[in-house]
Amino acid sequence: MLRSHSIIYRSNNILRSFVPKLCKANFSSISRFNKPHSQNVKKPKYKDNIDAPGFKKIFLIALIGTAIFVKAVDSIEKHKPKNNFTEDEYKHVINGLKRQHQLFEGIPISPIYFVPFAENMIPKNVPNSQKDNTIAVIDPKDVVEFYRTNTASKYEAFLNQIYAANSNDPGNLAQTLPQGMLCMLIGKYMKHFYNEKLSNKKKIYILAFPKSVKDSIKFENEVANVTGVLADSSSINEDVIQYYETVNKVTKV
After folding, report:
1. Helix axes 181-192, 140-148, angle to 10 degrees
2. Does residue 26 fall inside a structural domain?
3. End-to-end CA distance of the chain
4. What is the pTM of this model?
């Protein structure tokens, strides 16, 4: 009997010493897992300093937006087709298109007249250099043939390719060149023969040229200014004639 009481007593002592430890361990584990979530999340390394845009920023953005809008409107206006020009507007367009130096800039050149008729449509009363030796007449056909047959010309090979593709017809060659090439060759031809054929003449006539407003603008941009254009009743509605008529540069023949 005494022995059983002793065993019970010892068992109670063991339980008294073990239960507090067990409870303490469980409580510490629970408290560790129940910490606030904010304590476990790593804070970002950067500081959130984003502020609402101030008045200056809003005002600056408004200015930039307005400038872009005005620029877009101006661009649209510039690309609108313009059919009529005052003389001042015409001069402004030509001066704006001119490169830094024309071929004849600073070189005295006689008044230049375009005769934009097809070769077989040129009126008989157009000045003729064979009858009047005070004028010079430039025929695009002669210009192209000069450079096609000149072996020293850098255009010789290219012109002969086009010549062969057009059944070796020199009369048609000048009218089948790429856009702008005939204008360029006429300018070089005039510069090449300036002393021999042009410097002592009172007027210069260029036959069967230009074929388009683009060619006329290119000529005045890169070669020399044009004094006038000859036209008859059949060609008065052509674009080139209308282009020069707005600035009173058309002479009817």
Report:
1. 80
2. no
3. 154
4. 0.59
User: Tokens 């620029």 belong to which residue?
Assistant: 71
CA distance 160 to 166: 10
The parent domain of residue 169 ranges over 99-252
pLDDT in tens, 187-226: 999 999 999 999 999 999 999 899 889 999 999 999 999 9
CA distances from 13 to 16, 17, 21, 26, 174 (A): 5, 6, 13, 21, 125
190 burial (CB, 10 Å; 0-12 / 13-18 / 19+) is buried
CATH code of the domain in which 208 resides: 3.40.50.300
Q: Given phi > 0 = left and psi -120 to 50 = alpha, else beta, which region is 225? A: beta
Residue 158, domain member (yes or no) = yes
| Alpha-carbon span 180 to 215, nearest angstrom | 6
Q: How many other CB atoms sit within 10 Å of the CB of residue 65?
A: 10
